[in-house]
Predict the 3D structure of the following.
Amino acid sequence: MTKLRNSMQKTTLEKVKSIVGSNNFLDSIEDKLVYSYDGTPLISHKPEAIIMPSSVDEISQIFKLANEEDFSIVPRGSGTGLSGGSVPAENSIVMLLNKWNNIEEIDAENLTAWVQPGVITSKLHAAVEAKGLFYPPDPGSQDICTIGGNVAENAGGLRGLKYGVTKNYIMGIEMVMPTGDVVVNGGKNVKDVAGYNIRDLIVGSEGTLGVFTKVLVKLIPKPQTSKTLLAYYDKITDAAETVSEIIASHIIPCTVEFLDNTTINCVEDYAKIGLPRSAGAILLLEVDGHKIVVEEEANKIEAICKRNNAQQVKIAKDETEALKLKEARRTAFSALARVKPTTILEDATVPRSNLAILVEKIDAIAKKYNLLLGNFGHAGDGNLHPTCLTDERDTEEINRVEKAFHEIYDETIKLGGTVTGEHGVGLAKKEFLAQMIDVPALDMMKKIKQAIDPNNVLNPGKIISLSPKCEGKLQ
């Protein structure tokens, strides 16, 4: 068991500064505060310093120094994570990689692109689409989140139902291991089963097994056309049943998104795009592909929506209107976050056939604890984001919030679901992991971490704990 670390010595910090240079080293009180938290509410811890390495060799040197002098490193991109994955640990420095933002190559012949970890996801979308290509993963925070963070968390997105998530588009990774060794795994070969699949182990490891310095992503041809629909319902359950029937009809839209009444009204207050405030729920649906197929599937989906009591089905007349409708979903979190000082966004996922049941249970639990809770998410994936609007200064209400989410996750697990569909475990979900994963599997995870990071220097305490240390605390 690794011993508790003491605060970093000034001499150690000077050694760190000498590696990255004084211009790439921050340690003011203000900087430490700025990088003490990510997008996760109620969790923070100040780092000892923040560094911005400019080369793979500098990252390698920092890791070697960390192993020698017993401090930890917490990698960070834009800090949009929602599980505390980039919250600093005790005696740690934050390693910023958001300036590593070059798209090094777009290979149209092999349908791949080499990108640095700090590339903003939407910028990669724009760059490849300009060449008639397509990178499907599209997390809701795509205009600010980075590819490195997407890979670390195995990010999903609105198009996940049809196209899958980040792991389905990662062909190769260059990374620095916690020991300081540099590893390149994977490449442009469509088929390659030589040795263990290290790449798939690293994707979704939440920054605990290596720091990405370059990522090879898979591209596909851009769909010929698409059609976007917005269906309004009086009852949430009717919207959920619509999703089940669409999938049962063997139609796989690229997007099936859900907003409840609370979220609808917050979005309308925020974006003013003409959503019906009285609607109990909205489904945002999109089909893409060949023009004839898109037309046929859109018509079938419209009929299914109406058969399941949709009060109105609106079909976007052009791409401009389609983007406006999709923006309603993409602004959901931002719109909800304006209502109260603290926004707690969660990530419950069940098999699609149990979606309607979970929606009802979440609504009942919110009423039981007298909480203002908005619900939205990727209905086609069975992935919901129950979001509580609260105030962390109200300790009595926060206590009710914690009890409510414990019940929501208990019900999620009973329905065969998972406590995180795309946000990751990090610090926020660690307490639920043992409810889902058997002890032998947890032990295997710990053994993998110990083998790759023997001194526990990289992002310690995230997902699993190897030793007692301060891994982030309630503010």
